[in-house]
Each structure stands twice: as structure tokens, then as C-alpha cells.
Amino acid sequence: MDESVLAVGSHGGDDCSRLDQEARGVRYQETITGEFMSKFDPAKFEPKWQSYWDEHGTFRTESETDRPTYYVLDMFPYPSGAGLHVGHVEGYTATDIVARFKKARGFEVLHPMGWDAFGLPAEQYALKTGTHPRETTEKNVGVFKEQLKSLGFAYDWEREINTTDPDYYRWTQWIFLKLWERDLAYIAEVPVNWCPALGTVLANEEVIDGRSERGGHRVVRKPMRQWMLKITEYADRLLDDLEIIDWPEHLKEMQRNWIGRSRGAEVDFAVDPESTGGLEANIRVFTTRPDTLFGATYMVLAPEHPLVDEITTDGQWEKVKAYREEAARKSDLERTDLQDEKTGVFTGAYAVNPTNGEKIPVWVADYVLYGYGTGAIMAVPGHDQRDWDFAKAHGIEIREVISGGDIAEEAHEGDGKLVNSDFLNGLPVDEAKGKIIAWLEDEGVGKEAISYKLRDWLFSRQRYWGEPFPVVHRKEDAAVVPLPEEQLPLTLPEVEEYEPSGTGESPLATIEEWVETTCPQTGEPARRETNTMPQWAGSCWYYLRFIDPDNDEAPVDFDLEKNWMPVDLYVGGAEHAVLHLLYARFWHKVLYDAGVVSTKEPFKRVVNQGMILGTSYAYYETENGELLGNEGEGRSDVTQKTVHVDNVHWEGETPMHPDEDVELEPVVEKMSKSRGNVVNPDDVVEEYGADSLRLYEMFMGPLEQTKPWDPRGVNGVHRFLSRLWRVVCDEEAPVGVDESADFDEELERELHRTIAQVTENTEELRFNTAIAAMMEYVNALYKRDSVPPQAVEPVVQMLAPYAPHTAEELWAELGNEPSVSEEPWPTFDEDKLEEDTYELAVQVMGKLRGTVDVAQDADEEAAVAVARANEDVERHLEGREIRRVIFVPGRILNFVVG
RNA sequence: GCGGAAGUGGCGGAAUUGGUAGACGCGCUGGACUAAGGAUCCAGUGGGAGUAACAUCCCGUGGGGGUUCGACUCCCCCCUUCCGCACCA
């Protein structure tokens, strides 16, 4: 028996102070305290084991190993000032269980953690307080790290990385140079999402409903000089390689939608020179329905389309100009949602339909997007609802070219036979498509084409707190010159002001001595790039750096990469389903092409942990200040307000407003500061210990599912740990561990069944049912007076990944050498799973009429004999003819009677 | 509107190559131990009928049809909820 462990586990310490603060009666307090401390008290041993793992390097990973490798990764956090929330804990616990489990199963496990520490919040805090983002970041990282350690996660902290560390972003810059060398990075003057409040541009993905994803500020379109990455060049591979990875379907589907590949044709329409005063021009459109070409009755150019300037006639110029200006002022939001009526203006020009020579009017309308396809369309109102709406509004002809619908009522977008289409008449849609494409190609006026929703990645931000671009702009000839590799990292200079210049340039532009430099090739005067990279950059490749964090020759050693990649399991929030995962896949493929890595895809398996919801307490306030309870729900003249959870006044089971006589309504919703329904992991750890928090989050339900937090639920798992604790440690418990206790067959069978189920469930990430199985087993132990150590030790070993501190403590208490984290996973014996007999369900006409015990190897005849000896069964068979007997050994016996 | 996922006790959830629905936990009810219990232990807990009690029977996995000896599980139609995309030609 390890005495040091015992000593920590028993009386002593300063726990009284906490209870003092709770202002309980003195006598009550003493009794409770005394009793509590001889019981299960995680605070007494959790920190001890955390130090033990640290000191012994229990979870250090050997990069070079002969054992099979397993790489399990969390989406590393942005270290915000708010600290860790229960959603982090959910994902991190899941991976921690897997890491510890795989280690016990003989794998060399890589399970690292780091910080995605560039980003807006630290910079905005700097704007407000003048604190350097580096300081804010360091402080927040400290808090996060302490929180993670307090939860006992088995990270190899020697591999900790931070994206803001120059030794790290040196390689982010290096990868950028690879992109540049491969012609995948370029500068363009593009209309961007400019957010005046944040003083920066945002990527399309960072704009939601016309507002910034972070902070909800207004976003407008503005043309600016920007860095772009040619992710579109990889669109096909990003789409096709989804087939070779094991991701949840919804996630793949979101990526497919985002890439948005569609097959169709590009068709050239000549502008009729007569309508434009002799100007010759060509309008190229993309369409997925070339079969409807004969039904095109007008064309539309996006307002931004450059041809608008050329073809608009003098008579229409004023109107077109006004329309374009209005469209430019509108945000994307206004161009879509707020607009029922489709607006547009006629340019005065006509185009010629190549199939029949017909002249059709060319309009400008903002329902056509400049960024998709060619920015121009042929409009077929008979067979496209959007065009139909527009044609109706502007009195344009609607022509039927596919039969089967009623185009007077709505556009017919489905299948049918071609009509009014010359040589296509009579064909179904599919065949017509093939035939018209062939015809277009023969005539040289069109070809088969593929279009994508995916656009090139807007890769620069006008911020200070990001990776500087490793390039200079030579003044002489405006050439963009990359820095040579040996000059990396290009570090961020110190600045006085974090304020963006307001014109769109970053604060870096104000640091003369940094900006003014010379060209590394010619020595001529040059300016540094003052944009910085977006936050996604650092997270695009961090999983590689964990494999080889101290390498100063390369981002990652090629052989080590080969040994560890791809990541076997990657767990994180669904909010990164598109952006981060798509960008990281893109960079990985570029690195693959550049020979830096050996794998085509970085993440073999991805799992999104479900959101944890909180309960808030709502009431409703009318315009004149009257407060209503749930009777206000759904009324349009009221505003929903929330009472902070801590301020709810409980009248028994009823939540009441603290000041008014109003009954509150519990609402289960996403946790947010403003709702006052955020559960702080630190509080739970303090009250119940880290193991109970871990266990509860895993017991709540399936990992991927959205689940409501039940504050009483933690109690249940805490009770379970406490029960197991008492079996081992409490002499007054109704059951104790005793060397001489009988390890009977029944108990042994229970144990082996438990091992089988926990093993299988853990492997499949079904932690909730694994925990349930362990609970059942512990309940079974409780039915006895005493149990032998060999009946308890395996369950302690299986508990270790889930509740590691408690498991370590019990393992030592059972007289074993530390640490249980170094022990192999228990095995089970197939032969010990089954009894000699089993309970067979007997049905008559499919209804359960009784159960009987039959021998394991009973055949149908034997089973029927036993079943018919059962009164209840026999009663239902009485006087009826047995027409058929269905016997599935081990499962069911069913009599079909006449 | 389109796409994806899902509807099971008072609550979170178990159980699907079709085979005893409701494991495990919360909550609740009763009892034990107590000066006390928000500790612990024991028992019970889907709904209904029935019995002195035990039996026993009927209904039941969002709704309606179907396949089958047998359906939470498979097929068709409908309803609801959540998530994502949203004028992508």
C-alpha cells in the first residue's frame, strides 16, 4: 500500500475555509466537513496526479518509434480573455479519452496542444488600452494552459506551439513563399468586404448577412489592392478527394456546396452593332441549361460587368449609370434578402441569339452576380424562375421550349420534351444538352464548361497582429520581390499606435524605418508589404508542426511526416466545417505538390462535437415597461429579456423575476454572455472535481449531438465515482475489496462483458454508453459484501481515460505501482461472456408471451419443448394449430398459429 | 426554397446485418440509518385495465399506410424541430 497516497487521500488540509464562506451553521459545517473529507474529495488528489504526469513525462511522445502511431488532434483554441468554456472541454475530453485509450492499446500517441493566437480581439483590446497584443496573448495563454492542466488532459506540452511565435510564423511565411513560387499568390484590385468599424477587409466567409462575423458590424463593398490565393485552381481536387476521407456526410456536403461545381456551357452572344452605333462586342455567358437556348428572350449583365460601359446607348446612359451607382452602394444583404421585386435597366443594346439569329435586349440587373460564372446570363424566363419573375416585372416575352409545365403560372424547371427549338425538338432535356453543346462547338460559338461558386481566397488584412508578408515592393519598377528564405522570419516591428490608418492601410504603414527597405535582389529602394495575413494562415498547417516542433531546417521533417500523417482523428466545432478545413486542405495539397509532405489529405477522420446549450430564464417587456411572463411569448409588441441565472429567484420549482411578481420561462439555447447562461468549467471543477466534469460531458449523450447542460446531471456521475471510491477506500462502505473474496463465475462474466462493451464503445467514440456499462458494473459490485481486487482493477484501468485522476488514486490505493496511465488496456475472454443457459424470449404470433431458460446449444426441438412447458406460452397455444415455428438461436422463438 | 441531420417515459438518452423497447443517469415516490439530511443504503417508477396480493391482459418509439411470423429499425406519404446554403444562371 502506498502510504503517501493514503496520506493525501485522508484528513487534513484547508477545506474548511471554503465552507465557512458558505455561511452554514457551525455544527452542521463541522460534521459535514469531517464526513466529506473521509469520502471522495477530488480536490485532494487531482493536482497531485497532474504534477506526477508532468514530472514523469507520462504523455511525452517519441517522434521516432517502432510502435504503430496514432495522431489525435484538437482544433487548437484562440486564447480569448473569456477563458475555456464547456464546449472546449467536451471536444478536448473526447480526444483525451482516445489518446489515453490508444496509448493503453499499444500505440505511440501524438496528442498536442497549441495556440491560434493571432487575431482581432487582442488587437482591438490594444486599441482600447494600449496593451501590446503580445502581452494580452501571453496572459490569456497562461490562463488557458492552467485551465487545461486542471482538467488533466494528457498533452505533450513539450510540443506546444503558438502561431505568433516568430519561430513558428517563420514557416508560415516560408509556405507563403512556396505559394508565390508556384504562382498561387497574386495581387489584385478587387472589390472587397470593407468593414469600417473594424478598419479591415473581410473574406466572404467572414461576412454573414452583410455584417462581420465577429462583432456584427456593417460591411460595404470597396475596391482595394489585395493579396489573393488561387484556391480555385485546386477546386476539383478539393472536391474529388472528399471521397478518400472519413468525414461526416453533412460536413462533406457543406464543402461540396461551398465549392459548388456545376457543369454547363459557355456561349458567346454577339452584340448587334446596329443597336450600339457600330460597336462590335461579344457577351459570354455561362449556363447549366444550354438546352433552353432557343428560349432566351433577353440577356442580363451584372452591374459591375465592364461591357456595360461599352454597349450602353447614349439614350439609356443616365438611367444605367444611376442604377449601377445604387447597386454599388448596396451591401450584399440588400441586394438579396430585402428585395422582392427584381430591378434592372435596359442598356439600349441588343444581342444576337447564335441559334436562330434573333435579336434580344440586353439589360443590367443586380440579380446577376458579377462574381459567378461570367457575370452575364442568357435569360430563359420560361424555364428559370428568377428570369420568369424578372420578365413578368418588365414585360418581357416568356417562351416555352420544354413541354410539361404551365409557363403562364410559373417557370417550368423540370424535365420534358423540347419544343420551339428547331433541331432540338422532341428530345428530352439530357439529350438536348449534349446535342446543343456539340452544335455550339462545331459553330465555334460555345463549349462545354464547368463553373464554381468557390472564388479565390482573399488573403490580406489591414491589421498589425498577423504574419507580415515576406515580400517587398521595389520602387523603381513596382516589382514584387520575395525575401530569400534565410531572411525569415520577417518579424513584426513594435508600434506606438494600433489604430488602422483609416484609408485601409494597416498600422504597419506608419513605421517608416520598417517599411522603407531595400530590394534583396538589386539593393534598390523598396517598401515592405504592410498588409498582414489573416488568422487562418497559422491554423492551415499547425498540425504538421506538432510532429516536429523544433525543426529549424524545414516546417516538418519529411520522414517524420510520413510516419505520423495523416491525423487519425481531428475533433472540433462545426463552425470550422468550411473555412478552416477547406483552407487547411488547400495548403496541404500545395505542400504535397511541393514535395514537403507525403499525404494528399491532412485529416483522415473529422468529428464535430455538438454544441452544449444552456438554460436561460426569459420574460417579456411591453413598450410601456410592463413585464410579462410566458404569456408574452409570440406577441409582437414585446421584447424578450433574460434574467441572469444567478439572479433568478426560486419559489420552489418556479423561477421568478428577482424584483417583480413575474414567472420566468426557461429557454434552452446557445450559451452566451448576454444571456447569462454560460457554465464556467472552473466552477464545476471546484465543486465536483475535473473527473466529474469530464465524465458528465461525455455521459450527456452522443459526442456529435447538441445537448442541453443539466446542472443537476454532474451530480449523477460524481455519485458514480464516489461509489467506486468507497468500494476501494471507505471501510464503512457496504462493500469492500478483500483478497480472500470469491471471484465467482457470475461476477467474472459481468466483468468480461463490461470490458467487451467499454472497449468497443470507446473505440467507436460512444463514450456515453461506455460510461453506462461501467456504472452497471459498479452497481453489480455493490450487491456484494466484498469483492476481490482482480474484479476491481480492470474497471479502474478502463476508467483511467475517462476519469484519470480518480483512476490513478484508486490504482495506488489497490496497492499497485503508479501509474495506471502506463498500464495496458484490460482484455476479455470470449469464453467467459456466455452462461451455460440463456433467457429465450418466446412469442406467439409475434407477441411476447414468456421467457424461458434454454441451454446455450439448444436446437429448435429442445427450445420448443422448454417453451411449451411454460404455462403462459401454453395457454396462448391452447386449442390452436401451430402452423409454423420460427427459431433464431440466441434471439427468439416464435409460434405462428392458425 | 434547396441540402443535411433528427423526432423514443416528467428530462438527458439506450436498444437498428429486423428478434424481450425504455439500459445508464437525472427527477420523483416509499422505506432504512439519523438530532438533522441536499450524505449514504434498499425498493419502486412508460400509460391504462385488473387483483386482497400475485398473476394476467390491452395500448405504446411524431402521424397515416405498407412489407414481415415479428418493425424504434425496412418502404411510401405527411407533420415538426435543429443545422447549413440561399437570386451561384
Structure summarized in a few sentences:
By secondary structure, this protein is of the alpha+beta class. It is built from 29 helices and 36 strands.
Write the layout of secondary structure elements.
Blueprint: H1 3-9, H2 16-21, H3 26-38, H4 46-56, E1 69-74, H5 86-104, E2 108-110, E3 114-115, H6 120-129, H7 133-150, E4 161-162, H8 166-181, E5 185-195, E6 200-202, E7 207-208, E8 211-212, E9 220-229, H9 235-240, H10 249-259, E10 262-271, E11 282-287, E12 298-301, H11 307-311, H12 314-329, H13 332-336, E13 345-352, E14 359-364, E15 376-379, H14 385-394, H15 429-443, E16 446-451, E17 457-458, E18 471-474, E19 480-482, H16 512-515, E20 516-518, E21 525-528, H17 536-539, H18 542-545, H19 558-564, E22 569-572, H20 579-593, E23 606-608, E24 612-622, E25 627-628, E26 638-643, E27 649-651, E28 654-656, E29 665-670, H21 681-688, H22 690-699, E30 707-708, H23 713-729, E31 736-737, H24 745-763, H25 767-781, E32 786-787, H26 789-799, H27 804-813, E33 837-844, E34 847-855, H28 860-868, H29 871-877, E35 882-888, E36 892-897
Parallel strand pairs: 1-2, 1-22, 3-4, 12-14, 22-23, 24-30, 31-32, 33-36
Antiparallel strand pairs: 5-6, 5-9, 7-8, 9-17, 10-11, 10-13, 10-16, 12-15, 13-14, 18-19, 18-21, 20-21, 24-25, 24-26, 24-29, 27-28, 33-34, 35-36
Helix pairs in contact: 4-27, 6-7, 21-22, 22-23, 24-25, 24-26, 26-27
The chain binds one RNA strand of 89 nucleotides through helix 3, helix 10, strand 11, strand 15 and helix 14.
